[in-house]
Structure formats: structure tokens, C-alpha cells
Design a protein that fits this description.
2 domains; Tetracycline Repressor, domain 2
Amino acid sequence: MAVEHQESLRERKKQKTRETIARVALDLFAKNGYQRTTIAQIAEAADVSPRTVSTYFPAKEAIVFDLNGDMKERLAEALRGRPAGENTMEALRSWILSERKFWETHEEQLSCQRQVIEGDDGLIAYERAQIHEFEVLLVEALAVDLELEPDDLEPRMAASAAVAVFDLLSTEKRPEVKSEMLPVEEQMKIFDQALTFVVGGVNALREARGT
């Protein structure tokens, strides 16, 4: 039991260190620019060594996207483990709702992350690659809904439309403060409106194929 307790304390300390590095790095990226901020500066702000920063984050861009964590894995589980009778878009919405607590808790950090990403072309490209991985998950699930193969046009079109909704949410800002993201409640309202169009399109594709 003592060994387990020590391991638990060690893991919590490691997680706290990781979170501190990511938090202070985002602040520095936002203030000084992603490219101009060095690992040494991050280490000094986090009160750790540069080697520690590199141990937790071998790639600098990984620090920016640390907040995303295992989000993709959670989405994969939500889509692949959805109950019978629940379609992909319903599962997607349920997943969004399950993520809301995290988004609300980290709203300020997520807004800072958005600012940093949009200020660097390399980070935008990195994010696009991550979004593509999410899109692949949606294609696979929608192919099941439509009784098609993942490389068929219809599930790829529907997945692309769903991903476009996330693009809309990430770029939509408060009119009075352009650097701040919309509150979660407003984001969900936009998401539901857009989801109506996506669901309508998927249903039309299903009806056209008689499935």
C-alpha cells in the first residue's frame, strides 16, 4: 500500500509539473509569440530545467496542443461504442456535451491556445493534421450509418461537413472582444444549428440509397 501511495503521489506531481509547463508556455507564446519563445524561457517561467521541459514535451508544438490530451481517443470510444439506434451525429453531440465541463473549466486557456495557434502558420498546419484524424473517425462511423465503405464519397462528404462545424466554432469570436472565443453556451447553440443541416444531409443521402 505504501508503494502504491508513493507512486500515486509521484504521478500527481508529474501531472502537476506537466500542467504548469503547458500553462506558462501558453502565456509566453501569447505574449511574446510562439517562434520567439524558447524552451529555456519556458523552463525558467515554470521553475524547471530545460531538460525537464523537453522530457515532457519532445516537440515544442506539443506544448500548445497539450490541452487536447486524449480527446481523439474519447471521441473514438464514443463513436465506436455508441448504442444500437444512435447515429453518428447523435453520438457526436453526446460527446460534445460530455466534453463541456472540461471546456468550461479551461475556457481561458483554450482561448489563449486559439490565439497562439492562429498566430503561427506552422501551428495551423499541425492543427489541420489533427483535425484530419478526427475526420477519419467520423468517416468510419458515418460509413456504418450509410452502409457504405469509408472511401465512398457520401460518408466523406458528411464527415467534412461535420468537421466544418468545429472550424466555425473555433473561429467565431465575441464581437466586442475579437480575441476571445464565444462562451460555451453560445458555441452549443451554433453547433446545434449547424448539426441540423448536417443531419438533414445525412438523412437525405440515406434515403437516396434506400438505407
